Input
Amino acid sequence: MDGRKDAVEVDDYLLDETMPTGAVRLLDYGGGLAEDLPIHAVPLAKIAAAIHENARFLSPAQHEQAIRWLKAWKLRDVPIKTNKLVFEHQFARRLDAVKTSTAQNRLIAKAHIKSIWSRVFAALLAIAAVVVVVIYGAHSWRWYEAAGAGIVLWLFYSLSSKFNTKALQLAKEQDRRYFLDSLREGQTVSELNEAGLFAYVPDTMPEQGKTFSWVKSVLAMRRAQEQLSDALYTDPESFLVPSVLDGAREEWKGTGK
Output
């Protein structure tokens, strides 16, 4: 024992499938298996005991190795995508389906309409500006005529700018949704990479004037993978804890909504 606070206390090794009021405790206060465990909880309790005893002595790389082993067991029944060309083609078709989905087409149409209105008011602004110049050269302006012309020009400019800003916002939203939906389609590291998960990560792509290293590229993507994995399991608000979700589900049922 190194004297530091445990990352997970013995009280916290519980079966997550149950509600907090009826949670099954896996370990006793000494870190051994709790008494009277249900049969289905014994394998998990043994793993919990081994983790509680040894995890403090593992390096970060060894923690990641243990996680990969468990993930391999979890995914043992998932078909392995060994035929790269076939699965690349299938993934490309899924991405194309995302790109041509109703949601994407709706956002593209909205952005296109806003862009058209922006160009319409920009054209009206240009026409109005030409008229103002022609009239200004024909006679001297009274102050209210100049004020009225200024208001008209400002109105056309304001409307053109407003619709252009909205069109850009919709285009950015469409691109962002496509990117996120593409990530959700990814089922392997290669597919996530194809969808752009590691895009713009430093040292992962060739850059002009810099020597590209494949080893550095892979290491940079490994660091990004680990950072993402750590973030997904850093949940101080217990936002995705199963017992919390169960409680929220029961509360939702109780409201009758």
The CA atoms of residues 150 and 231 lie 54 Å apart. Helices lie at 42-54, 60-74, 84-99, 102-138, 143-185, 189-195, 214-232, 242-255.
